User: Fold these one by one.
Assistant:
Number 1:
Amino acid sequence: MKSRAAVAFAPGKPLEIVELDVAPPQKGEVLVKITHTGVCHTDAFTLSGADPEGVFPVVLGHEGAGTVVEIGEGVTSVAPGDHVIPLYTAECRECLFCTSGKTNLCVAVRATQGKGLMPDGTTRFSYKGQPIFHYMGCSTFSEYTVVAEVSLAKIDHEANHEHVCLLGCGVTTGIGAVHNTARVQPGDTVAVFGLGAIGLAVIQGARQAKAGRIIAIDTNPSKFDLARSFGATDCINPKDDDKPIQQVVIEMTGWGVDHSFECIGNVNVMRAALECAHRGWGQSVIIGVAGAGQEISTRPFQLVTGRTWKGTAFGGVKGRSQLPDMVEDAMKGEIQLAPFVTHTMGLEDINSAFDLMHDGKSIRSVIHY
Ligand code: NAD
Ligand code: AHE
Ligand code: ZN
């Protein structure tokens, strides 16, 4: 079938809106009509060419919602008409990782996913007879996409896709990082570096966890009002101080914060986030994604004196098991999604979503088909 899609033909170039050919879903695969997709910083990261797993030409997008159109052989957990959120972290419920009870990092389709391929090693997208790669197992920048069955969370038919698509990445990652990775407890102090959708979702999660002080940090002060509305108690712009930001946070808190979260993808900020964690027990969670060749560093003494460095993918959430309930929470107003959607636009304007992000003017742009 034909599908309208925004294709990244080369790194650093605007996406091009073209009509792709989409092959039918094969064994264990599902054809999904995407209705809405958010644009996450990770899409921009991969488009920039900094992603070691970046392959081109590719259909990016991994924060979508849609409906099932057709199922391939052997698919039993979804049926045509079901409403779904594609998952870049699959959940097969059978692999070593899924059955460990310790992680959400399923490996069922991860190896081929990282190469932009379906599990059988081929692509379902083509343009003028040439294969086009998939992205993060989702490729939500195509109106019709093919996804592995294990990479689909079935959700409530009544859910508002313009909002719940954000549970496909940004909001789930931030909230999950607080509850699953850091396990923030009532009264804990929290510092959040970077106030995009991820950082704001961390703040929302921290308030759910009844954190005490929530310190929000961004070099763009236009993010502060929304951060306060989600529960930030203090907002700081690192540019306002000559001292390193970790020193500012330590001076504000005495010994540092119980939990810090890096939601930018900047290795220098990752260091600052670790170093503002409390002596003896503070932990720092890396959420931001850093480019090829970048490395983190700190004095080992920072760890010797009791700080812990952690990371999280999709907030530790098991998508097929946990996302349906998060959608229900959003429908009940227990997870707020609407404030994240600062812009909406049709697919033809998708490049402006990237511009708004780079200019610091959006939290999330949501594309509708
Ligand atoms: P975003 O661009 O919307 O937000 C980033 C924020 O960081 C902006 O508000 C920006 O002003 C701020 N910032 C930039 N440099 C800063 C600095 N030096 N100090 C303080 N603030 C600074 O991005 P987003 O969509 O919220 O994503 C954030 C990061 O999280 C990205 O790296 C993205 O790739 C990553 N991410 C990771 C996961 C995961 O599962 N680990 C999931 C989603 C996104
Ligand atoms: N491909 C990159 C890493 C990109 C990355 O870390 N992705 C996050 C999700 S970002 C969503 O916006 C993630 O979940 N990683 C775990 C995984 O299995 O992909 C690289 O460095 O190669
Ligand atoms: Zn994302």
Number 2:
Amino acid sequence: MVLGDLGSKLVDALGKLQSSMLLDDGIINQVIKDICLALIQADVNIQQVNELRQSIKRSLDANAIAAGHNKRVLVRQAVVEALSKMFDPGHPPFQPKRGRTNIIMFVGLQGSGKTTTVAKYANFYKKKGFKCAVVCADTFRAGAFSQLQQNAAKVRVPFYGEQENKDPVAIALAGVRMFTEEGFDLIIVDTSGRHMQDTELFEEMKQVADAIHPNDIVFVMDSSIGQAAHDQALAFRQKVNITSVVVTKLDGHAKGGGALVAATQSPIVFLGVGEGFDQMELFNTHSFISRLLGMGDVQGLVAKMEEMDLEKKHPELIQNLTEGRFTYKDLRSVLETFMQAGSLTQMMDMMPGPVGKFFHDMQGGDAANADREGFLRLKGFMTIMDSMTEEELNSVKPLTATRVSRLARGSGQHSRMVQALIEAHKLFSRFGSQLKGLGINPAGDINPR
Ligand code: GDP
């Protein structure tokens, strides 16, 4: 998962609250210490970690006055609040609107993942119904033209570039004019990647911005630089008005936490979580912290279900889920959706602890093949459900032992797999009851809490 290392350390630290019989100051201090250490190991700036420590202590002191409170809950709340504040960008990023021209200019250092993110961004908004197009104004790096052209073809959006022209300002202007006249909602302009010391390229970035007047300048930053993200963002901001930030490569870097905290001084809009064009997630502090602490991301999950039109495809599913009436047929629809989502890992990360853990275990320990392994097992589940009778599919109860052996025989799967399927069904049913508790209605909206 995103920042998996940091997440599991934080979860372990908070776990001590649960596992200790007597919650004295010694344990509480130890929990706070572990949390701070985990953040420092993720390369979060030490001063910010100290601020977090003080903020947790302050809120505990204040709450200690109000006797009768559950201490475990108080400490947990104080930690969640302090972490949320630490990861919160403070102000919302630019949001493009359909039905008007939105010009988005991408900037960043070479290798940060900028060109890949341009395609991810186009892909994301195209799925939301925007008419998107991309322009290559990177005349510096050989190969930039064909990379973006190919990326654009893969996500099926029109591309503009001039391979022989060396004037990025002229190309950017021509592309923006052409797509504006053609009525595109979202025109995404990729610019040359730079090195920090390259003043000429920084100047060029400013000229492009002055010429095309972007509605949003998106700064793409690689999370592996850790807390150095702060200085990098500052260097770019001194030249152009950065209005959004995308932090990339959060799928595999121990320093990601540091980069994210350092970058939160800018409005983070997306996180890059893999090389694939759909491996980019909207950044939302609440969802992010929930997932980081193993609490699942119900909002993210419902958004994903909506994005995939789950409600139209399986209208009864969300209703059943939220009414706590979850059949094997519903489980089949959910698992089908996971398989269509492309990334099982991404879906799993949104699940609350036990469900997420179940699927993670199912994927095996090999991170590189996790999705493939997980999909193979899911296919096994599908085969079992294909051999179920209509009565079994509509059942909300665990299957009896005789049915388990019959299904194993009928589907050619091991009975362990049938047991695992029953376990998955149980976990989802419980998750459904949680959704009910959160006040999620069948249309997928979340009532503000
Ligand atoms: P640019 O020079 O900034 O345009 O960078 P590219 O878009 O060419 O990306 C550089 C490398 O980073 C490529 O191999 C990308 O596939 C990879 N990359 C980009 N974003 C991500 C991400 O979020 N996660 C991972 N793991 N790799 C990424």
Number 3:
Amino acid sequence: HRYRDPGAGDKMDPFAEQEAWENYQSGKGTLKYGSRNKQAPADYEFVLEDGIDFIKESIMDGVNFEDEMSSEKPDDSTAKNALQKLQEERQTLPIYPYRDELLQAIHDHQVMVIVGETGSGKTTQIPQYLHEAGYTKHGLVGCTQPRRVAAMSVAARVSQEMGVKLGHEVGYSIRFEDCTSEKTILKYMTDGMLLREFLSEPDLASYSVIMVDEAHERTLSTDILFGLVKDITRFRKDLKLLISSATLDAEKFSDYFDSAPIFKIPGRRFPVTINFTKAPEADYIDAAIVTVLQIHVTQPPGDILVFLTGQEEIETIDEILKHRTRGLGTKIAELIICPIYANLPTELQAKIFEPTPDGARKVVLATNIAETSLTIDGIKYVVDPGFCKIKSYNPRTGMESLLINPISKASAMQRAGRSGRTGPGMCFRLYTAYNFQHDLDDNTVPEIQRTNLANVVLTLKSLGINDLVNFDFMDPPPSEALLKALEQLYALNALNSLGELTKTGRRMAEFPLDPMLSKTIVASEKYKCSEEAITIASMLSIGNSIFYRPKDKQVHADNARMNFHTGNVGDHIALLNVYNSWKETNYSTQWCYENYIQVRSMKRARDIRDQLEGLLERVEIEPTSNLSDLDAVKKAITSGFFHHSAKLQKTGAYKTVKNPQTVLPRWVIYHELVLTTKEYMRQVTELKPDWLIEIAPHYYQMKDVEDASTTKMPRGKGLAAD
Ligand code: CDP
Ligand code: MG
């Protein structure tokens, strides 16, 4: 295969651009965009009023096949069934010409690093190739994904390509949802699920191949998996291990896996014009909306991909775009808006992959998931506000937060690249070239270095890995964070003073939950309220999507919600009340509508609860209900969440002056702390301070709860209950 630079016409190495980037990163060179390709695409002009001024800054070189893989499809409207078409599509993927070479390399090497651009076919094709080559005769081919949505959607795609029912030969496994069967030979799963599989099968005996996909994402679970699978390959010589990644870091992976060979799949990429804003944008949401409309009105056909930080932002933009385009009526072409984020219901996910009808344009509003995990065909324009939500952790305070942060340069490159898959693309960065150069880090810090490790430490301990300091981490976590995790698990009585797993710890590890929640469940045995504990745990596990608050019925919705709080029982008991009331109506959908509750979330909670019930049995905790003693339930919660206690300060100084004696410090326990513009607690329940001493005497002393000046409050003042 020979490649041609579409601009200059000279021969170039398909990986030149990537190598330039890698050199730049390692300080060996400077990064020049467009040094080779001076030919700019057609000029464009924005005509909308109040548009944003962009300056065309650079062109990211693309790589084209010399023989111009024709994008024109032959007229195949007749008699060709969908399966055949899919088979043909498979053969047009960049990975296809390397199929045999790749299989040979896998045959020759036990461990291999595979690098190829997003969309080249790594995730969907490699497991199928392995199946075709016979690897599934000796065991499963497992492929891990950092994201649930990716695992599900890729499995769905592959089952279509193979013409089988999802869950049969091709399945997926994500937390609380196992869509596999006896028949399954190709199994897509989240990296966290494979980690849990080590608990029941420490040598992964049922697998013949493990593909750790999207390795560049460096999620916590992926990083831990690296250490575990590397170890297994030493004594299971029959196990093949593939580490696959969308460019970058290949050398690092190879070094870590004892110099494993790197297989590069040359990409097929078109040039991407990069535009920066002339001046910084104060409101990137607004800027994104304006830019989408600008593109829609002024640019030739091609779909738009907008990178946003989360569900709420996506919903906001979705709504505003709908409103504005409705206002423009038939003056503009149809704009089909497709959101995609982790909690998007499965049935709506398929929509983003549907081809755009003629005359219309699709705009995909996505989280980071579309950066490398999912490829959506037909994207020609990328709008990149330059932000993503990043988890960070302060080991000193033990506080974890999810904050909107600028992305890294590597991310920005990936995002831009999404627009040049099927033809020349354009990327609109809603920040200045100066920002890009000076304010963005080169790479995102691996999650292991910015997260609470309690969960992972508990898993590793239950795998019998005691010496965590000498665990083979690719990048070790800060020792402070490791220590804090050990301390926390010790405080939860999951570890003894020697750092060994206790019986409580062993039971906790059975639950696929945060240690604080699993401790709540294990402690509920003592308070005879295990039924309530698993209900609350499952309601908390579905996150923030239980209550539904339509804009035009907010008062009704809020009133309905308050009914569950009668008696000022706190948020946890309110969740319990919601579930139990729903159960009393025999899980009625109508009841959900009437109470402004999302029926889908409730069904999921029920499903999770069923699974937790099964796990109760496994750890031999009797299902008992203690509804008449809500304090007992709250004590069980406190047993898990005493780290999350706070003393509420009355912020109303006026009241304090007038009635000083009524201002008793109120203590609460919260599920999580959310940092947005201001930190607030989510899911709060009041507790009696004595409980802290009764339940966690090793953690709290009398003076902590008596003396107003010493509190275990995480951040001092400024905390407001949500
Ligand atoms: O893993 P990698 O990024 O290399 O590519 P992939 O996910 O295997 O995607 C290969 C092709 O399959 C892309 O052209 C996607 O458009 C298509 N695909 C799809 O149509 N639907 C999915 N759910 C996943 C992939
Ligand atoms: Mg992939």
Number 4:
Amino acid sequence: NKQVILKQRPVGLPDESTWETVKADIPAAKDGEVVVKQHYISLDPAMRGWMNDSKSYLPPVGIGEVMRAGSVGEVVESKHPDFQVGDYLSGWGGVQQYAATDAKGWFKVDPNLVSLPTYIGTLGMPGMTAYFGILEVGKIKEGETVLISGAAGAVGSIAGQIAKIKGCKVVGIAGGAEKCAYLKDELGFDGAIDYKNEDIQAAIKRECPKGVDVYFDNVGGDILDAALANLRMHGRVPLCGAISQYNSTEGIAGPKNYLSLLVNRGTMQGFIILDYVKDYQKAAMEMGTWMAQGKLKSREDVHEGIENFRETFLRLFSGEKLGKLVLKVMDN
Ligand code: NDP
């Protein structure tokens, strides 16, 4: 059972000193527990925040502990009344090949309906974030202009497609021509902005000439500022994340244009997807239906080998991935 342990808290980007891969025995299930053979680990930007020793919505991962992560796999031993050997579960198994757990907060999944990685992507935490963030926090309405950053990623790509399904004009912001072409040609976005090669202010004006009703913020920083400057009256800004700042070693400046919220009677609202768990089932049903109808496309970028955890994780910050980033750590 290979495990990735947090060895030292990183300053800036995680490096070789941050984690250690160790070998442990395959755990045994105690009463009320299952052992899950983990096929896929979810790599999420939030994991960077969980490594900081500061107050947040979850306690930090402790030094010497298995790195926290979402996962999906197969039950290989059960002393739990609700689960049997051969069931597939998704939950919080951490970066390791086998997890013993009481399965609180885990869900049973069916690998015959969609592939296992989809259960930690579009039908898992990132997809739920997109769904509740754009519908309940963003409160999008038909005909509105919706701008999304991190648009080619796990959350952004789904938030944008849901906004299209609901009849909005959708413009995505992503790094590079390939991702921008993907947004328009594959996902049906109305416009795309390559923030690495375009002036972001001018590009938002070009793509959203009437302004932005809803800006779904995944990145923070200069892009948030540019979006605020283009907000329409009664605009909403779901604050989902700020990946541009997660590895910052300097203080965070801004947003400078926050008074646009005042002028436009706008709202910026943060949310944490863990608060919506009781409604996941309903959302997953609706999203599964959209997928079956071909209205919602799910894309996973799967890499292999628990030894490659760090290099793969860093792709979240370099942008060298498309869709939901997943690490396969055990064969089926
Ligand atoms: P993604 O799949 O979108 O991967 C991260 C992407 O961020 C990269 O592919 C890269 O895309 C982009 N990026 C990285 N660095 C920068 C930067 N400096 N400036 C702009 N873009 C950058 O990740 P997720 O979809 O899983 O997560 C997206 C956001 O949602 C994160 O901020 C995350 O923390 C947040 N989140 C919040 C939750 C909540 O409950 N509030 C729950 C889940 C996620 P590109 O190539 O386009 O630069």
